[in-house]
Amino acid sequence: MSEKPDAFKIAQQQFLAVADRLKLSPAIKAFLSEPEALHVFTVPFVSDKGDTRVITGIRAQHSFARGPAKGGLRFHPDVTIDEVKALSMWMTWKCAVVNIPYGGAKGGLIVDYKALSDAEKERLTRSYARRLAPIIGPDLDIPAPDVNTGNEEMAWIANEYANVVGHPEPAVITGKPVEYGGSLGRGSATGRGLAFCVERYFENTVGSVKGITVAVQGFGNAGQYAARILSGMGANVVAVSDSGSAVYNAKGISVGAAIEHKVKTGVVEGIPGKKLPKDKLLELEVDLLVPAALENAITGDNVSKIKARLIAEAANGPLTPEADAYFAKHGVTVIPDVLANAGGVTVSYFEWVQNRQRLYWTETEVNTRLREIMRRALDEVQREAAEHKVNWRTAAYMLAIGRVVKALQSSQGF
Ligand code: GLU
Description:
Layout: H1 7-21, H2 26-32, E1 37-46, E2 52-63, E3 69-76, H3 81-97, E4 104-110, H4 118-132, E5 141-145, H5 151-165, H6 189-204, E6 213-217, H7 221-232, E7 236-241, E8 246-248, H8 255-265, E9 274-276, E10 288-291, E11 310-312, H9 321-329, E12 333-335, H10 337-340, H11 343-357, H12 363-388, H13 392-412
Parallel strand pairs: 3-4, 3-5, 6-7, 6-10, 10-11, 11-12
Antiparallel strand pairs: 1-2, 2-4, 7-8, 8-9
Helix pairs in contact: 1-3, 1-13, 3-13, 4-5, 6-7, 6-11, 6-12, 11-12, 12-13
Bound molecules: glutamic acid.
């Protein structure tokens, strides 16, 4: 096994390769190679036993070039400063690919969050929120959910922020519960956005998404909704996996029942079908593979075993550059994370717009606007890839970096 690749080095290399292709100036390269601001906090909280524990909290604000910084908060023991920096840079490109008026940011707590009690989770999150309060805001930096965080955490942070500034300010964070300023459709948005991309891809190529076979690696929020919505479009989800195992069913998995099973038992094991070791899911012969877990699922070590004809990245950074290069060489299209999973941040944008206007949309309005944005972005990336004869990640980066650079040039004279 090769070592865990350093996400920030990968992010920088990806950026610099495209920057060279776009002939960007040394100043722009230097400016966009690092976050504009990086905050590292000590975050104390009182455990249930009554002792005080101190956790490292991070917020990287990669870019404000196109608007306030935007991006999620991940609470996980493997979080590192470099990983958060990488993810913040990816958020900048993601917001630019779908052309929403934000820069990029990411935050994290280095903690085994799942091992904490509910009361500890709340105390820790509120303590982190108080550290974040001076550096976030609806016109400055707008956090959101990411790995192991959801609308409960967002509500605590919004409430803590309101306590600090002295008035409610729902637009400071997105992914809130619907009853506390959240948007309808935000929970399903990442999976739905991915399904819209895939639907459009098949319309633009073979004609229809109906009947394609799909394997989904990772059965959390994004994976579950992607599977559910794709299957609603007529695709045949034949395999799902989680961190424990995989299930394969050639006749097709009944996705609604599978989600119910996962929610009830916490695992995919037991869903009707054949049990496989979790990594075997990646090697199935399917039309579409959706990596929806963490980074580095597909590396130089396992890429040659992958037989899927299309990959759509629901997770952030699930392919290493070696894996990317292999797919490019073998003609396998990869719909990159900055496009495929941008539905989440797009509906976050809708939530922020609704909060600021105090005018709330129906779920149909949200989904219709999301579909429009995802289809347009997919068409633009596909066109860029064809025009410049590059893979889709490079094409998405070319579009995104081009937009960020134009903003910098017109506003800051770079
Ligand atoms: N964490 C999600 C992402 O990586 C959503 C970010 C947001 O909604 O701001 O895209």
